[in-house]
Amino acid sequence: MSFYRKNYRPRRDGEEPEKCADPAKARARALDALAAREMTSGQLYERLCVRFTEQAAAEAVAEMVELDYVNDDRYAEAKAHSLLAARKSRRAAAQNLRQKGLNAQQIEQALESVYAPDEDGESPELEAAAALVDQASGAVSEVESYISDAMQYSPIDGEVSSVIAEKGELIGSGYPVITLLDMNDLWITFNIKEDLLPKIRIGSVLKAYVPGLGGAIELKVDYIAVQAEYATWSATRTKGDFDIRTFEVKARPVAKVDGLRPGMTVTVNWDEIR
Questions:
Q1: pLDDT tens for each residue of 75-111
Q2: Angle at 142 between CA 139 and CA 146, to 5 degrees
Q3: Structural domain harbouring 246
Q4: Does residue 2 fall inside a structural domain?
Q5: Which of 66, 89, 122 is the last residue of a domain?
Q6: What region does 228 belong to: left with phi over 0, alpha with psi -120 to 50, or beta?
Q7: 239 has a pLDDT exceeding 60
Q8: Are residues 177 and 203 in the same domain?
Q9: I want to staple 219 with a disulfide (CB 3.0 to 4.6 A). Which of 147, 201, 245, 251 is the partner?
């Protein structure tokens, strides 16, 4: 069951709400609106007409103008200054002021006052446009810097061995993207037992056969180092025998070898070590 106050009639669909005609209430509402922000007489009138009759709204606006709480000329000039500070063109400023409900005379007067050339003939509008150009140039430079940072350049003149990250994948900082092969810095690695070390030393020259090239090449040893414990040859007898360590040996071609590539098989004749 619904209850209604005495003399209360429900509003029908589409029927506008009844507006207040009290000038005092309209004046109080106008003061509250102006305390929140400055506005033109047209803006204030439109706001008051939402809740008050046109006559009450007009009387309230007229009183605000008389008290100088609303001054369209002052508002137009202040707004024009703020638009110029925001580097808006004269045309854009005029359109903005027109949307505030100002008439053509008020707009022209404000723009003439703010956008007029100074004593040296410099146009504020041109200065604002130049500032926008500088700002745009700075943005372009920033984007170019981002693009430059996104470009990765190889530190060597080599070949791409494998692509680790594909286009569109997200990777962390420092994560490898591709694997490069330095074709100008190739070496051969092989492991020997330590009882063979007397036959080889740093600087030894080895003659090696490369099946992939169908011929022999000369290598020069430049690295010898012991391997980890897992590569030790353990003794098979408890007496008279001992563990034998494994050593890694690296040797590089004495001269550039055309066609030599990583992964090729290389065999060494120990009888030809010198």
A1: 888 888 877 777 677 777 788 888 887 888 888 887 7
A2: 140
A3: 188-272
A4: no
A5: 66
A6: beta
A7: no
A8: no
A9: 251
Q: Which two tokens stand for residue 242?
A: 């001992």
Give me 101's structure tokens. 């409900």
Q: Quote the number of domains for the chain.
A: 3
SS percent in the chain: helix, strand, coil, step 5? 40, 15, 45
Give yes or no for a contact between 179 and 255, defined as CB atoms under 8 angstroms apart: no
Residue in this structure with the two tokens 């102006």, named with its chain if needed: 34
8 A C-beta contact, residue 128 and residue 88: yes
Coil, helix or strand for 126? helix
In a domain, residue 61? The reply is yes
Residue 49 lies in a domain: yes
Listed residue (73, 72, 76, 80) closest to 125, CA to CA: 80
Burial class, 20, CB count within 10 angstroms (exposed 0-12 / middle 13-18 / buried 19+): middle
Q: Is 235 in contact with 242 (CB distance < 8 Å)? A: yes
User: Which residues is 267 bridged to in the sheet?
Assistant: 209
Q: Which helix (H) or strand (E) holds 182?
A: none
